[in-house]
Amino acid sequence: MTARDLLFALIGVLAAASGLLAVTSRQVVHAALWLVTALGAVAGCYLVLGAEVVALVQVLVYVGAVVVLVLFALMLTRAPIGRAPDVDAPWPQRVAAAVAGAATAGLLAVVLLEAVRGRLIDVDPDRSRAQPLARSLFGSWVLPFELLSLLLLAALVAALVLSRDGVRPRRGEEG
Amino acid sequence: MHLTGPLLLSAALAGAGVYGVLARRNAVLVLIGVELILNAANLLLITFDAAYADALHAGQVLTLFVVTVAAAEVGVALAVVLLMFRRRGDVDLRGARDLAETRDVVPATEPVS
User: Fold this and answer.
1) CATH code given to domain B4-88
2) What CA–CA distance (Å, rounded) separates B14 from A8?
3) pTM, two decimal places
């Protein structure tokens, strides 16, 4: 049990607890804010595992952009402030969802733990340096990287087209 | 360091995400479940990147890619949710049955006598 193990256990408990609260909270804004905590704690886990660049990208993109988008979506859809009765499905569906979630978690845990069988790893401090990561990102992985920029462009255009829906008929009426 | 912690955390996050996707009625809250599942996958990638330490940094690079894909996904999903809100006035997934099969359709496999 090293210091790294202890640190990971602390941050991991925080991440798991806030992740559970994010999917069970009856107050929609609180659920989004618990998601911030969970994503931040996962970024902390990345730091402990020696992936500093990824942890920073996680904070920038997830906590900075994705959660803000989710909060925007909650505000623009007039999410109720305070406890809302119609946030969750009725209880039979919730029970079925809990069974499915527990089964997923159990299956993953058993398979993964069986796959590594208590293996110990040394976290290499050199792995966290940005330069080797950038070399492989813009060297071996440059083609998928460029494809991702195409995907982002396509997603941007798709979001634009979707949000312009309903404008076209009105313009047709005018013309 | 032990691999048990990261693997258990990843399984827990994936389970919580599955519960969130299945049990929520608000479309935006379903998105939160999807984000948790993606983070579970990312945590696994980072864990095995630290465990195997390959020269291509595959785990870290693929995690960056997944984060990008998640950002694109949330952008499109936000547009879809807002469109749904403009058309229907709410984001309740139980009421959104526009694409559901209707009950009164005669089954196509009815035997022809």
Assistant:
1) 1.10.287.3510
2) 18
3) 0.88
